[in-house]
Amino acid sequence: MKRRTQICLLASALMFASTAALAQSSADDAAKKIAANAGCFTCHSIKHQESKDAGLPVGPAWQDVSLQYRDKPGAADFLTRIVLEGSNPYASHWKNKAAGIAMPPNAVAISESNARQVVFWILSLR
Ligand code: HEC
């Protein structure tokens, strides 16, 4: 292969990769903005909290939520429902891992499609 062709191929591969990365990061930004506007960060952080010195977080970190659910079939539907309708205080999924006993319903603060978008993003966190 001629050197020039090689360089061209390399350049287009790089362009493709950076466009894909850009598309990904703007999807992340959009989801983050929706979550911020809906008040999710009052109780949740994105990153797993290494030390429990500061006490348990009110709600589970979203990296932990992803770890817990990302391989479960139907997780996106299941979590979207919980986000909209709130969680059951008598059947806490994060007992001893979060300080909050239950999540209040968020349907007043977020639409179903936005909730779904945020949940998809949460499940993509690593
Ligand atoms: C007032 C505090 C509070 C707010 C605001 C809040 N959450 Fe939660 N969230 C919690 C608590 C507490 C839990 C843990 C519930 C449990 O133990 O079952 C939780 C759990 C979750 C879970 C995991 C559900 C499960 O059953 O494992 C997801 C996903 C989630 N929240 C997303 C969101 C999103 C998205 C928003 C914003 C629209 C939001 N939360 C706003 C407190 C909150």
Please write the string of helix (H) and strand (E) elements: HHHH
CATH topology term: Cytochrome Bc1 Complex, Chain D, domain 2
Write the CATH architecture name. Answer: Orthogonal Bundle
Major beta sheet summary:
none
The small-molecule ligands in this entry are: heme C
Structural shape? elongated
| Ends distance | 39 Å
Protein name: Cytochrome c-552
Keywords: Heme, Iron, Metal-binding, Signal
Signal peptide: 1-23
Domain Cytochrome c: 27-126
Brief characterization of the structure:
The chain is mainly α. It has four helices and no strands.
How would you explain this protein's 3D organization?
The protein is mainly α. It has a single domain (25-124), classed as Cytochrome Bc1 Complex, Chain D, domain 2 (Orthogonal Bundle), CATH 1.10.760. The chain contains four helices and no strands. The termini are far apart. The mean pLDDT is 91. It binds heme C. Heme C binds at residues 35, 38-40, 42-44, 58-60, 65, 79, 82-83, 87, 92-94, 98, 100, 102-104, 106, 109-110, 118-119, 122. Heme C binds next to helix 3 and helix 4. It comes from Rhodoferax lithotrophicus. InterPro entries: Cyt_c-like_dom (IPR009056), Cyt_c-like_dom_sf (IPR036909). Residues 1-23 form the signal peptide. Residues 27-126 form the Cytochrome c domain.
Features of the shown structure:
binds heme C; iron; elongated; Cytochrome Bc1 Complex, Chain D, domain 2; 126 residues; Cyt_c-like_dom; metal-binding; mainly alpha
